[in-house]
Amino acid sequence: MATDAGREEPVDPDVDVHVPEQRAELLRTHGAVLLVIALGGGLGALSRYGIAQLLPTEPGRFPWGTFTANALGCLLIGVLMVLVSEVFRAHPLVRPLLGVGFLGGFTTFSTYAVETGALLRPGSVPIALLYLVGTPVVALLAVLAGVAATRAAVRGGGAR
User: Whole-model pTM?
Assistant: First the structure.
C-alpha cells in the first residue's frame, strides 16, 4: 500500500493469513523480519531457561529466576536501544532479532503474572505484593540504568 509520497507503508494490520494472497504479501515483505524474530525468541527463551535452572523457584518463595531475567532483559533493552538508535547505524534486522526476538523471549512478564498469582496464598501474600510491585519498578529502573550507562560509556566517543 502506498502513501501520498509514494513510499511503501508496513503491511496492513488487517492482513488475513488465511487468505493466500494476503499471506504471500506478508511473507514477501516481512519474511526476514519474522524469521529473525523467531530465531532470536528461541535463543532468548533458551537463555531464560538457563537462568531458571540456575535459580529455581520454590513454592511460596520469591521467584528470583524470573525476576533476574526480567531485570537483566530490561537493562539490556536500554543498552540495545541506545546503541542502535544513537550510536550505530544498525542493520534493519538487528532490532527485531535482538530487541523483539531475543529480549522478548528472554523476559517473561506472563510468568511474572502467573507466579504472582501463585504467591497469593496464606503465608506468602507479602512476598506476592513485593514481587507484584517490585518487578515493574526494577524493570523500569533497569531500562533507565541501561540507557544512562550506555550513553555515559559512549559520550564523547564519536556517537552521532
Answer: 0.79
